[in-house]
Design goal:
Two copies of one chain form a homodimer.
Chain A lengths: L1 E5 L3 H12 L3 E6 L5 H10 L3 E5 H7 L2 E4 L3 H10 L1 H4 L3 E4 L4 E2 L7 E2 L7 H8 L4 E5 L5 H5 L10 E5 L2 H14 L6 E5 L4 H18 L4 E7 L2
Parallel strand pairs in A: 1-2, 1-4, 2-3, 4-5, 5-8, 9-10
Antiparallel strand pairs in A: 6-7, 8-9
């Protein structure tokens, strides 16, 4: 499959590299073509890796990942809107405010989410929020953490979520550990959860953790 | 032990009843003495149960629980401030906005929490946020949900958190499933998590669940 990956940071690199390892062709997109980090990544990741601007990556991909920092995500998606039309966009980003230092504050509230902003900016794209609740290495290799911990999907389009679940399966997330929370507004739940994730990171002094779901029948 | 319980709703009733069952003496507090629900509860819960206003409940208790609806919690604590001075207050409340119907919106953000507002309103009281991440029946009987799911404590005072952990132990939460997130500001993490809890409730069509923590060593 051809995949566009927006973002040249740790998350974009982790997702892009994993997709290439899985046999997919990946174009990493950035604000401007010729981005040094994207070109270096494409060189190191091999024949199936290339780079371009966001619009290039969107047109190239049959599906796309938003791995940009949350504060730049709406601009990135807007600039690539035509290439994304009709496609599935997996949004894995979080909007973090580092203006008061670390740990950052979560910008998302229970009134709106980045995923909904992206969906509004690209109404012809089928946005699925997922993977934003774990660190980048766990996203693409959940077996790093032993046990039946879980991941979430939120989105308005069932077929798009189905496709997301398949890709998550390639990353190593069994289907019974993917929880469909509902429509795209449920991304408010996972985006604000990152506030708890950051405090757990502080208490555990580690990013190598995730939550699981326990229920009575 | 003598315990003051603020609030006459489902949470106050669950906590008060459980404390009486455990052998504690409980005074349920409400805005005005003579509250019908509080009096009915005290009658049905037996000799160790009584009722009064918030100030009565605070003066009575060696420790207190805030189980009021979040939007009334600061007023409740303020009216009982003298009786709470020097004591531990376990805040289990959430502030939910039902103005757009159910599910409610979470009022807490990553910029402030109800627990911090309560701590500011009663600076001589040692506030510990806990139990607000599960439904009221799970709060007082975690064995309803099988497995090693977890609960959190947040607070500025270590001795107060120690006392909270002991009370949680009486409720059935083993110490190794109580996660100390840090100071009272970490309550932002658990208060905003309730947004994810509400969406999980929707997806699972149940309140009988909780999260567990999985980590690599």
């Amino acid at each position: 499959m051809k995949v566009g990956v927006f973002g040249t940071g740790m998350v974009g690199t982790a997702i892009g590299t994993r997709l290439v390892e899985l046999g997919h062709e990946v174009r990493m997109g950035s604000r401007q073509a010729g981005n040094e980090k994207a070109e270096q990544w494409a060189e190191s990741a091999g024949d199936r890796a290339s780079s371009g601007d966001f619009a290039d990556a969107a047109s190239f991909g049959e599906i796309a990942f938003n791995c940009t920092a949350g504060e730049g995500s709406v601009d990135a998606v807007t600039s690539a809107r035509d290439g994304l039309a009709g496609k599935v966009l997996l949004d894995v980003a979080n909007t973090l405010d580092f203006s008061d230092g670390a740990p950052p504050a979560i910008v998302a509230t229970d009134r709106d989410s980045l995923a909904e902003q992206i969906q509004r900016a690209a109404p012809e794209t089928r946005v699925v929020k997922t993977l934003n609740t774990v660190s980048n290495d766990v996203m693409v290799d959940p077996a790093r953490i032993p046990g039946d911990h879980v991941i979430f999907v939120s989105g308005d389009d069932q077929a798009a979520k189905r496709q997301a679940v398949e890709l998550l399966g390639e990353f190593g997330w069994p289907e019974d550990r993917v929880i469909d929370l509902g429509d795209i507004s449920t991304a408010r739940g996972t985006e604000t959860y990152v506030g708890l994730w950051l405090r757990l990171m502080g208490a555990l002094d580690s990013t190598q953790f995730n939550i699981g779901l326990f229920r009575s029948d």
